[in-house]
Write a structure and sequence with these properties.
This protein has two domains: 2-182 and 217-235 and 399-467, FAD/NAD(P)-binding domain (3-Layer(bba) Sandwich), CATH 3.50.50.60; 238-392, Alpha-Beta Complex (Flavocytochrome C3, Chain A, domain 1), CATH 3.90.700. It is 29% helix and 21% strand. The protein is built from twelve helices and 21 strands. Strands 1, 2, 6, 7, 8, 9, 20 and 21 form an eight-stranded mixed β-sheet that branches. Strands 10, 12, 13, 14, 15 and 18 form a six-stranded mixed β-sheet that branches. A hairpin with a 2-residue loop joins strand 20 (407-410) and strand 21 (413-420). It is elongated. Flavin-adenine dinucleotide binds next to helix 1, strand 3, helix 7, strand 18 and helix 12.
């Protein structure tokens, strides 16, 4: 029998597998996907958010614990567990040498990458290279890896892990780490969670999934049904407004539309509905998917003029281009009169000061609802561009409740050999909202904890038997 079974094949799973193996445990990792699709959402990532008190490697200046914590507190609106959040923040300051030991390399942040050179460490080659490095290291250390193996449920004995079932196959282990992602790929579950809106629409029918198709939440659902303590609202998720032309799965970051704060966003009624300049884009991009999900038809349009070009990461598909705002409205199929009124109202409300996209500048609107509080400049320079937006789900926040040991809990009692990491428990730290790079900080911190704890649980039990 293997010592530690790791279920999942993304960042959190690999961190757990490597830590358990380094501690001397034998490890078997089960990944639902075929080898060529291994790595889950983690393959789409670019960076992790890191605390540091002075310049460190590719990270410039300082990003102290308190600032990281305040950023998290603000985006979550206080729906977070401070103890676990601070644990993640502190772990983010020390994990990089360990990651480098396993072959991960860092590079300076790219220009236009959401103002993150100070706060986020970028993986050279992106998440795909990070996952390949971890898999290579795991194989070298003797971690057994099985692909095409989706676990449906666990066999438990009063909160203790006994075995996992992949179809009819029963796989025993002395301890287990679950790191099988959220349920974002499961459209039926999203449909059930979001229900119908006042227009009779099922908003989830128009959601696109930014990452893997393999995070179906099967194990999460079965654990909740088996009585594991859960946390989080099933409708809360990291949701980005992405290009409406993106594929249903795995569109990745190149379908993100990053020019929202440089222009205005209107819905299908050609009306604005939210402050596009509320805060820096890294702190706001993850709320726009939800905002678009709340509009009729779950569609909206990001409108910019020529002044914005070169100031944001260009998306993979070109925008709709027009020489006048009237022509743009026509191309988008929006009511021209309403659209022109919306744009005229906005343009005449702009109080232009010193435009600075790298600061919370003084360009704002006056007497307009909703206001645009920063980077408000009239849209008056042709050519004009528009991008149709749809909600892109990155990952869901409903998960299993944990304490600082990453143990799964049943009626408040922690299991002594079953642990959880990554998206399956990220909701403990992220009740809502998001700040760029914190998904990988949570997965790395808790993946490493879960792997160490699982190995420790195995050795503790062996010692107990040896002493008996
Ligand atoms: C486009 C995109 C860009 C992102 N960019 C960033 C970024 O730059 N920085 C950041 O911090 N976060 C980013 N995120 C979020 C980040 O991907 C997640 O927070 C993180 O990868 C979660 O890691 P994980 O290991 O929990 O999940 P995943 O990496 O998704 O891994 C889950 C794994 O479990 C497997 N699995 C699922 N069900 C089963 C089952 N029943 N049995 C066995 N295996 C199963 C899946 O195949 C997958 O391998 C991004 C996400 C996306 C989609």
């Amino acid at each position: 029998m293997v010592d530690v079974l790791v279920i999942g094949g993304g960042n959190a799973a690999l961190c757990a597998a490597l830590m358990a193996r380094e501690a001397g445990a034998s490890v078997l990792l089960l990944e639902a996907s075929p080898r060529e699709w291994r790595g889950g959402n983690s393959t789409h990532t670019r960076n992790l958010r890191c605390m540091h008190d002075a310049p460190q490697g590719t990270l410039v200046d300082a990003y102290p614990e308190e600032e990281f914590w305040q950023d998290l507190l603000k985006v979550t609106g206080g729906i977070t567990d401070e103890k676990l959040a601070r644990l993640v923040i502190r772990a983010s300051s020390t994990c990089r040498p360990w990651m480098e030991k396993h072959g991960v390399r860092f590079q300076p942040s790219l220009s236009g990458a959401l103002h993150t050179a100070r706060t986020n460490a970028f993986f050279m080659g992106g998440g795909k290279a990070l996952m390949n490095a971890y898999y290579r290291s795991a194989e070298k250390l003797g971690v057994q890896i099985r692909y095409d193996t989706a676990v449906d449920r666990l066999e438990l004995d009063e909160g203790r892990f006994v075995a996992a079932y992949a179809g009819a196959e029963r796989i025993e282990a002395r301890a287990c780490v679950m790191a099988a992602g959220g349920f974002e790929s499961n459209i039926d579950w999203l449909r059930e969670a979001w229900g119908q809106n006042e227009l009779g629409e099922y908003p989830a029918d128009n959601f696109l999934i930014r990452g893997t198709r393999f995070n179906q939440g099967v194990l999460l659902k079965s654990m909740i049904e088996a009585g594991a303590d859960s946390i989080g609202d099933p409708t809360q998720a990291h949701m980005v407004a992405i290009d409406a032309r993106a594929p249903l799965y795995d569109g990745g970051i190149c379908t993100r539309i990053d020019c929202v704060s440089l222009g205005v966003v209107v819905n299908s009624a050609a009306k604005r509905f939210y402050d596009e300049g509320e805060d820096f884009w890294p702190k706001r991009y993850a709320i726009w998917g939800r905002l678009v999900a709340q509009q009729a038809g779950q569609v909206a349009y990001s409108i910019i003029d020529a002044k914005a070009i070169g100031r944001f990461m260009p998306p993979v598909f070109p925008g709709t281009k027009a020489d006048s705002l009237e022509e743009l409205a026509g191309k988008l199929g929006l009511d021209q009169q309403v659209f022109m009124q919306t744009l005229q109202d906005y343009n005449s409300a702009c109080q232009v000061g010193h435009f600075d996209h790298t600061a919370l500048d003084d360009c704002h609107t006056a007497g307009l609802t909703p206001a645009k509080t920063h980077w408000a400049r009239p849209l008056d320079t042709a050519p004009y561009y528009a991008y149709a937006l749809q909600p892109g789900v990155t990952f869901t926040y409903l998960g299993l409740k944990v304490d600082e040991t990453a143990a799964v809990r049943f009626g408040g009692r922690p299991s002594d050999n079953l642990f959880v990491a990554g998206e399956m428990m990220a909701g403990n730290v992220l009740g809502k909202g998001y700040t760029a790079g914190v998904g990988m900080s949570i997965g790395t911190a808790f993946g490493r904890i879960a792997g160490s704890q699982a190995a420790a649980a195995v050795f503790k039990r062996m010692e107990k038997y040896a002493a008996a």
